[in-house]
Amino acid sequence: MKFGTALYTLFFGQLIGSDSFGNRYFERKGGRYMRPQRWVMYRGVAEPSKVPPEWHAWLHHVNDTLPKDLKKPYLWQKQHQQNLTGTNGAYYPPGSILSGGKRDKATGDYQAWKP
Q1: CA nearest 30: which of 64, 5, 53, 6?
Q2: Mean pLDDT calculated for residue range 60-88
Q3: Which of 20, 43, 86, 91 is most buried by its number of CB atoms within 10 A?
């Protein structure tokens, strides 16, 4: 967290809520003809992919409904997960060099190209 942002938040920010990652969301009421200003204070490393979709929509004024006021998620919806690309938790498909380079044998419908 930057010192300037923390100071600005202290003087002008109103805490609106937080998410499961520990990120805190703030708002400053705008003037008569201005939209409210919204921002997030990340917990730990500032990683924008840690912002869940419902909070992202609120931050960008897509909707004014707070995520805690939204309906419960559907049964088929997965829990939000930050982007793990470049970490040990990244997904590597079977046959990828980074996952060992072993892939299943071709089933016969595949013919290698020969020049």
Answers
A1: 64
A2: 83
A3: 43
pTM: 0.69
Q: How far apart are the first and last CA of the chain?
A: 56
Task: List helix spans (H) across the chain.
Answer: 3-12, 53-59
Residue 35 has pLDDT above 60, yes or no: yes
Q: Which position has the higher pLDDT, 22 or 71?
A: 22
| Cα distance between residue 23 and residue 89, in whole Å | 21
d(CA 98, CA 102) in angstroms, rounded, equals 10
Tokens of 46: 């500032």
Instruction: Kindly tell me if the per-residue pLDDT of 2 is higher than 60.
Output: yes
The whole-angstrom distance between residue 53's C-alpha and the CA centroid of its chain comes to 7
61 is written with which tokens? Answer: 């004024």
